Amino acid sequence: MSTLLTALAAAGPLAAGWSVHTVCLRRSLRTARRDPLTGLRTRDGFTRRANVLLKDPRAVVVLADVDHFKQINDTHGHAAGDALLKATADRLAHYVGRTGVAGRLGGDEFAAVVIDTHGTIGDLLAVLHGVLARPADGMDPAVRTTVSLGWVGAADHPGEDLSGLLRRADEAMYAAKQARAGVRRAGLGRLLATLSGRRAGRRGTGVAA
Q1: What pTM value is reported for the model?
Q2: Quick one: angle between helices 78-96 and 69-76, nearest 10?
Q3: Please, are residues 172 and 150 in contact by the beta-carbon 8 Å criterion?
């Protein structure tokens, strides 16, 4: 009996150490899946949550790209550009809420997946476009721009994975940017390999399943 008690006493600190290690490891993983500037999920974290949401046929994939971002950086400095990205991320995160997911794919490009519960996604994205165009709080009002949005419904392309839907949303976003239309829905036809010389698989749209 004394031998058992001795063994248990010796194992106690080891078990406690592993518990602390496990907690620290989980925190590190959560931190690694968050963009340090905006607090949004990184590509990996976004992909994991987005793939779960895409099991719902009402899911909608949205791609957002800040217009004239390089000009903002060149004119007002990188600190202003960072503040603009942070404001964009905060507003996008507020829009998707707890039932959706938003992530920063890289640079000035963001993605989201939301559930279109009431079939009003087009109207809601038009409102979001206006919100994203507002100057960031506490910043010089001159530091402002718009954000082009492209979106596609998962039900429009049954069986297509996240990467394919992101490419469609990306093409719609680029068309909206070129036409200065603000928001555009992806077409329901065949996925085009290029659009005005723009590759469908460009930076930011290739996401592992």
Answers
A1: 0.77
A2: 140
A3: yes
86-91 long-range contacts (CB < 8 A, ≥24 apart) are 86/37, 86/38, 86/136, 87/136, 87/137, 87/139, 88/38, 88/64, 88/132, 88/147, 89/35, 89/37, 89/38, 89/39, 89/40, 90/38, 90/39, 91/128, 91/131, 91/132
**Amino acid at site 6:** T
Report pLDDT digits (tens) over 83-129: 999 999 999 999 999 999 999 999 999 999 999 999 999 999 999 99
What are the CA-CA distances from residue 162 to residues 74, 120, 152, 207 (Å)? Answer: 34, 22, 11, 7
What residues act catalytically? Answer: 108
Please say whether the beta carbons of 144 and 110 come within 8 A.
Answer: no
